[in-house]
Amino acid sequence: MKKGIINSLSWVFKTMYSLSVVAFAGIIIGTIISPLINHSTGSDILNYSLSTHIKLPVSYEIWNDGEFSNNASLNVNEISLSVNSIWYRVLDIISSLITYGCVAWVFKLLSEIFKSLSQSIKEVQFFDLENYTKIKRIGFISLGFHVYGFVESICIAWLFIDELSIGGKAVSYGPDLSDLSHLFPILIIFVIAEVYKAGIKLKEESELTI
Known about the structure:
- The protein is α+β, with helices and mostly antiparallel strands.
- Helices cover 63% and strands 20% of the residues.
- The chain contains four helices and seven strands.
- The chain has helices spanning 2-37, 86-123, 129-160, 183-209, and strands spanning 44-48, 50-62, 66-76, 79-83, 164-166, 169-171, 174-175.
- Strand 5 (164-166) and strand 6 (169-171) form a beta hairpin.
- Helix 3 (129-160) packs antiparallel against helix 4.
- Keywords: Membrane, Transmembrane, Transmembrane helix.
- InterPro entries: DUF2975.
């Protein structure tokens, strides 16, 4: 039963890895072909995870001829930019390549880990140093990806966006700090890696005792 589940997970991650590689290749091919078949000078719509907090005047009508007007606080956590600059497009392509590249790498490692675990069930060797290295590598890939996303948001907010206004009010954007909450699941990956490493040490000690 356990082996069947592990084999199924290995197959799922291997399939996801293949799809990620196809998406990665699709981005490269699309980048090459797009300028050849699309001669329009229209703008591209790019989405970035940025945040700001502003106050805008609002008013609404109350039932029975009442009316209210005041200032409302507004939190904005994502921005869509309509751009026609080559630099934005290059940055978006690089971001997409990094995203799908990291996803493909992680799925590849997960597939290899579960394939190794499936083989370990036969040999009753559940703890392997190579799997520990792969688990830790997944943690570093995830950490690097989120650090890149945060740095990209800083570059977009502080270097590329100028004189942005909402409701006639000038606003300044910054990176969305709520994205830092994604670091906690990454820390769990490192914890799992260290627990797995402890299992390896226990296995080695038991072998020495025997």
